[in-house]
């Protein structure tokens, strides 16, 4: 058996299923198009830069900046210049976004319960550790 191919298929399927649920949860706020950016911002405690955000979302810088502009216009984020870098901005979640984050917590808990049904906390932790290792081992900075 070629385990790496099966792992790749399972990760792809699990990722797609999780993101279908997240996208659905965000759609009630008309944020389905930007759910991954918002989910990532929530995970980053609401403050980051576009260059940091690009490490976690699959988008080009122009597409990301377009999405950030939409989110700013809708009142979910604010952008401010970084003090010592004219080319970089800091992204801040607004109070409007924080209200949505709190209300989405119940949906996220439901998604987690469904995803981890039959998987105890130790197994969840081991899964997380192994995924972190897998990502580290396959990071672009490593040569093969």
UniProtKB/TrEMBL annotation:
Ranges where the HTH marR-type domain occurs: 24-124
Keyword Transcription regulation: yes
Matches recorded under InterPro entries: HTH_MarR-typ, WH-like_DNA-bd_sf, WH_DNA-bd_sf
Protein's UniProt keywords contain Manganese: no
Coiled coil ranges: none
Keywords: DNA-binding, Transcription, Transcription regulation
GO molecular function: DNA binding; DNA-binding transcription factor activity
Name this polypeptide is given: HTH marR-type domain-containing protein
UniProt source species: Mucilaginibacter limnophilus
């Amino acid at each position: 058996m070629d385990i790496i191919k099966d792992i790749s298929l399972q990760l792809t399927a699990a990722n797609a299923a999780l993101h279908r649920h997240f996208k659905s949860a965000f759609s009630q706020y008309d944020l389905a198009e930007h759910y991954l950016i918002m989910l990532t911002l929530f995970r980053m405690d609401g403050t980051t830069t576009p260059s940091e955000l690009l490490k976690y979302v699959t988008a080009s810088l122009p597409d990301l900046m377009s999405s950030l502009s939409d989110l700013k216009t809708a009142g979910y984020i604010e952008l401010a210049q970084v003090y010592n870098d004219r080319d970089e901005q800091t992204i801040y979640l607004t109070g409007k976004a924080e209200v949505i984050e709190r209300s989405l917590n119940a949906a996220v808990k439901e998604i987690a319960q469904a995803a981890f049904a039959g998987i105890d906390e130790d197994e969840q932790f081991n899964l997380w550790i192994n995924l972190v290792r897998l990502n580290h081992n396959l990071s672009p900075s490593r040569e093969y």
